Amino acid sequence: MRAKEAPEHIKANWQGTSWIAEVIATGIRDGKPFKATHRFITSLRTTPDALLRLVRDRWSNCFAEAWRLRELALDS
Measured in Å, how far apart are the chain's first and last C-alpha atoms? Predict the structure, then answer.
């Protein structure tokens, strides 16, 4: 996971944009290795470290909710 300030051509086309964050996910899916890259453009005015914490928290919450729903389905 990394973040960098948006370049001028991005800022010019998406007014208010300040950062680009990139999340690289790797793992095994259907028995095969995979790598997926997700990029986010944001207007949040913060430090790269704080932005990365926000993204990590968001993804962690998504996974936690998915597991909770899975467990509820298995209990039914």
Answer: 37
- Both structure tokens of 12: 């010019």
Q: Is the pTM of this model over 0.70?
A: no
At residue 44, the pLDDT reads 81
- CA–CA distance, 18 with 67 (Å, rounded to integer): 33
Could you tell me the residue range of the domain that residue 57 belongs to?
2-75
Gap between the Cα atoms of 73 and 65, Å rounded: 12
Number of domains into which the chain is organized: 1
Average pLDDT, the chain: 81
| Other CB atoms within 10 Å distance of the CB of residue 40 | 15
Q: What is the torsional sign of CA 45, 47, 50, 55?
A: positive
